[in-house]
Amino acid sequence: MLKIENLSVRVGGKDILRKINLEIKKAEIHALLGPNASGKSTLVYTMMGFPDYQIMEGEIDFKGKNIESLSIEERAKLGIALAFQHPPIIKGIKLSKLLEKISKQVINIKKFPIKSDLLSREINVGFSGGERKLSEIIQIISLNPSFVIFDELDSGLDVEMLEKLAIIIKDKLLNNDVSILLITHRGNILHFLKPDFAHVIINGELICSSKDWKDMWETIRKYGYEKCKECKEHKLLSD
Amino acid sequence: MKNVKNVKSINYYQIDYNVNKIFEREGAVILSSPEAYKKLRWTRDYFKQEPKEGYFIWVKKSIGYPLITRITISSPKVIQKPENLVVIEKNVEVKIQSICNASKKNLEGKHIGCSKIILRENSVLKMKHFHSWGKRDWVESSLEFFLGKGAKLSYAYKCLEIPMKLKTENNTYLKENSSSNLIITILAKDGEVDMRDSTFLNGRESNGISRLRMIGNKRSKIVARSQIVANDAGIGHVDCMGLLLSENSSIQAIPELINRNKDASLTHEASVGKISEEALNYLRSRGLTEDEAIDLIVNGFLGEEEPIIIKGRIVPSKLYM
Q1: Rounded to a whole number, what is the distance in Å from the CA of B246 to chain A's nearest CA?
Q2: What are the C-alpha distances in Å from A149 to residues A31, A180, A194?
């Protein structure tokens, strides 16, 4: 589905990502863990094709196609979707209007735990943390994607809300063989979605990949990301 | 907008200098301004001089559906000078949709409109005012609203096709407990816009809000002065928002607060900028092209599509124009 090889990225003249390798197959869930400013968001925005994220070397292939030269919208049309950590406020445009413009499939909004007026409100204007995330998930599902990146889905949410979102993700995405990349530095979302693989990124380098996300998370929880630098147990899967 | 069954037509229709049609409604007297000046002596107090063109609307009873006026330039080189007078009696509620336009884009006409709108005690007016012009037209429009005690005014002006020069001046005078809510929306392309609006809080507990939404595109220049003057203990707010879509355009937004009463409260906010990259990227990540994303943001900024009613049918204003 997605293959990143030897990817190095520069932003604003500064090297942020160094030689990243990552492969996500159909229907797999991967988690990318890392402290603040480790390069997680840079990887997300580079995958999505945002301007200012300059690829210095390496490749990104999606469904067997090289996508580095594609625009943001072309990548979206190919099936890549991003649920933003901090989606912007867009005044004057109701969520329903946006859904009308972007939807590739009909959404039964009654199945989502939202207040009835959410669709008639301007995008993210006055939305609570949970409403923002729900709005993101509804938009993503409406796009009928094959690969979804959730950027810090669990930030600013209580456990109860996170569980509700995880149920929706399982029902609407995982049941349809959608591949998922979870960007996070918390553990709760991992327990709900149980990734097939987990990776650690520090200082722009992917230093560890493992199928045993529980063990990896337990180490990080107990000793912090510094321990990952010293750890000899987990090795990159490609090694 | 719901009660459209009985709406048959435009209530006042002027083409170039001539009245094409007047269609009165129960509860309202509708005349040309020259006729009103002749027949109803009291109207002379409101006209600056004997009018040659324009409409007079006197609403004596509440009307559930909108009264519609239309003043159109349809011949080349016409110089229209309509003087309009609207009087809404005590406790009466009414909606007015007013259209001023050029039927073709190459007529090189002039429209110099002057309207006075009187809201008597506790009356309510919801007015939508649409302008649409050709690139070689010249337009000056002045409006004065006089609100009696407890009167309520909601006024929305929208011009999405400006002439080469558009000059507007609005003055709103509020007495005790009255309130006004003005929203003025301009999409400027290839032309100059000079807007002034002033709201005078002349009575206790009066409440005035004035909001300007301006988009500058393709060699356009907008200067907008929006002022609130508190002469009594009222509340006023001005907000001027500008969106610049091209390098060769400019927007100058000048909010002004003048407070002459220590118990009055006046606030303003203003911003002029480009469409945020963040918002564009967000919408593009949903599969919209850059142009589609810009269109969506601009339409959001300009506000909801305003329906107008012609011959009993609801017509989107953009189509109509």
Answers
A1: 20
A2: 10, 6, 15
